[in-house]
Design brief:
The protein is of the alpha+beta class and 256 residues long. The chain has eight helices and four strands. Strands 2-3-1-4 form a four-stranded antiparallel beta sheet. The relative contact order is 0.12.
Amino acid sequence: GTNLLNKYFPATAANPTNLVYKLSAPAWDDATAIAAATTQLQASKLFTGVTGPLNPIGGTGFTATEYAQLHAALGSGPLPATLTGPLASKIPASAYQLYRATTQFVSADGKTIQFETSLAAGDPSTTAALSAVPAIRTEAQAIAGPLHATDSGVTGEAPALYDISSISNSDLAHVIPIAIIVIGVLLALVLRSLVAPLYLIASVAISYFAALGFAVLIFIEIGGSGGITFILPFLLFIFLLALGEDYNILVMTRIR
C-alpha cells in the first residue's frame, strides 16, 4: 500500500511527519519567508521529501509571488472543484488545482501552516526514526525565526512514539525503586527479618533482567528486529514484580 501511494503521490503523503507553525501574519503576506523555509527543509539531511504551502503536491510548485497573486485573485477557504466565471480564462486549470491543494497546508486565516515531510531515517515507527526526533525538532525550530512564527511543533507517529517512550522510561525509573522499597518493607514486616527480603528482591530482579535479556536475544539477535517495543520493559517489570513477590510472600510465609 505504501509503495502504491509513493508511486502516484508525493512520498510525504504516506505517514508524514508534520512541522506546524503559527505565524504572526498571514502566509500570503510573507510568502517569501515560506519559500526560504521550504528550501531550507529540502536541503536538510533529515528529510527525503518536503511538501508545503508552495509545493502542495511535490515538485517545484509556486514562487512566492505567484502564490500571493493567486491568493489575491482566489482568496482562501474552501474552493470549488473547478474554476468558473471570468477567472477561468485568466488562471490555468493546473495552477488553480495546485492552489486549491494548498488548503491542506494553510489555515483559512493564513496564520497556521504546516509542512509534511518524509524522514531520511525511514519508517516513522522504527527505532532510527525515534532517535532522529530531537534533531528534527531542532531543525523545525531553526526555521521558526525566518518564518516569523510565534509558535511551532512537530507531529506525527515518530514524535508521538518518542514522547511516549520517554515518558515510559521516566516512569520506569521512578516506579522500580519505589516498588522495590515498599515491597522490601512489607517482606521485612512479614518475615521479621532484614536480610531475607534482600535475597527475595534480588531473585525477582534477576528474573526480570533474564526475561528482558531473553526478549532481546529472540527479537533482536535472532529475529533481526531493530529493537523491542519500549512498552515491554515496563510491562515485564510490573508483571514479574507482581507475580514474583506474591509468590515469595506466599511461600516464605508458609515456610516461616
